[in-house]
Write a structure and sequence with these properties.
Blueprint: E1 4-10, E2 15-16, E3 25-32, E4 37-41, E5 44-50, H1 56-60, E6 88-95, E7 99-106, H2 110-121, E8 126-137, E9 154-168, E10 181-184, E11 187-190, H3 192-207, H4 215-230, H5 239-254
Parallel strand pairs: 5-9
Antiparallel strand pairs: 1-8, 2-3, 3-7, 4-5, 6-7, 8-9, 10-11
Helix pairs in contact: 3-5
Length: about 260
C-alpha cells in the first residue's frame, strides 16, 4: 500500500466566505497544480509537479473528504486526541485553473471556533492535504529517484487518492509553493525552514503581536497556555522559546 504523504500551501487568499451568513464557510485551495517543487523524502530526491488531472477521480467519486486541523497532529508531528476529530464538512471540491478549490463549513465546536478566529486574524493562512500517490510519471524506480548528471528528475503526480485536508499551522514558502514536508508511514521529514518557522510561531505565542491583543486573541492564547501546562511533554524547550520568555518577563517587570 502506498505511503500517506502531505503537502502544505501558504495561500494569501484563504478566507471565510462573505456570502455565507453564519461566517463559518472557509474557501481555500487544498492543492496547487503545476508548481514545480524540490522534494527529498522516502522516494528519493526529485522535483514534484501535481498534474491538473491528479484529483479527477476523487472529485468524480462523490466522496467529500473530512476537514481536519493540522492532519490531526501536534506541531511536532505526533498524534493528538484533541485534533483527531474533524472540524468541518466539505461543501464543494473542484479543480480549476489554479488547483483543487474547496469550500467547507466549519462545525460549532471549540476547536473549530479557535481555528476560525485564527484564520480571521491571519495567524493561519495555510491549507494542507494528505493522501496516497496512485500514479506518477515516471514511476518510482528501485532505490528511489536520484540526480542524473547533477540534475533532479521531474516527477509528475498523475493521480492522488485524497484522504483529508484542512488548515495547517506551517507552510515554509510564500504564494503557491509547496512546503518541503513529508509525513509517511515511516515518519516525518521536516526541512530546516519548516523547523525555523515552527519556532518563530511558538515564540509569537508567548510574546504576542499587535493583532493578537484583541479580546478573542487573548482568550485563545490563554487556552494555549493552559494546554501547554496540561501537556508539557509536547512543548520541548529550545533557545528561541527561552529568549521569548525572557523578553516577555522583562516587559512585565518594566510595566
Amino acid at each position: 500500500m502506498p505511503a500517506i504523504f502531505t503537502r502544505s500551501y501558504a495561500l494569501d487568499d484563504i478566507h471565510i466566505s462573505r456570502s455565507a451568513a453564519d461566517g463559518r464557510t472557509v474557501e481555500a485551495y487544498a492543492s496547487v497544480f503545476d508548481a514545480p517543487t524540490e522534494i527529498s523524502d522516502h522516494q528519493g530526491e526529485y522535483v514534484e509537479v501535481i498534474d491538473r488531472t491528479a484529483f479527477d477521480r476523487a472529485t468524480r467519486s462523490g466522496h467529500l473528504p473530512p476537514v481536519m486541523f493540522n492532519h490531526g497532529r501536534t506541531i511536532h508531528g505526533e498524534s493528538s486526541d484533541r485534533f483527531s476529530m474533524p472540524i468541518g464538512t466539505t461543501i464543494e471540491m473542484r479543480a480549476d485553473g489554479r488547483g483543487l478549490l474547496t469550500r467547507a463549513r466549519y462545525a460549532r465546536t471549540e476547536l473549530a471556533d479557535e481555528v476560525l478566529e485564527l484564520i480571521r486574524d491571519g495567524a493561519i493562512s495555510a491549507q494542507s492535504f494528505s493522501g496516497r500517490i496512485v500514479r506518477s510519471d515516471p514511476p518510482p524506480p528501485s532505490g528511489g529517484y536520484r540526480r542524473s548528471a547533477g540534475k533532479l528528475p521531474t516527477v509528475r503526480r498523475l493521480e492522488i487518492d485524497l484522504r483529508e485536508y484542512g488548515p495547517a499551522v506551517f507552510a515554509a514558502y510564500k504564494g503557491a509553493a509547496i512546503m518541503n514536508v513529508r509525513s509517511t508511514s515511516t515518519g516525518t521529514d521536516l526541512s530546516r525552514k519548516a523547523r525555523d518557522a515552527r519556532n518563530r510561531i511558538r515564540a509569537r505565542e508567548i510574546i504576542g503581536t499587535p493583532a493578537q491583543r484583541s479580546r478573542e486573541a487573548t482568550r485563545i492564547r490563554a487556552k494555549i497556555a493552559l494546554f501547554k501546562i496540561d501537556h508539557p511533554d509536547l512543548y520541548r524547550e529550545d533557545p528561541v522559546i527561552t529568549r521569548a520568555r525572557a523578553r516577555r518577563d522583562a516587559r512585565h517587570r518594566a510595566a
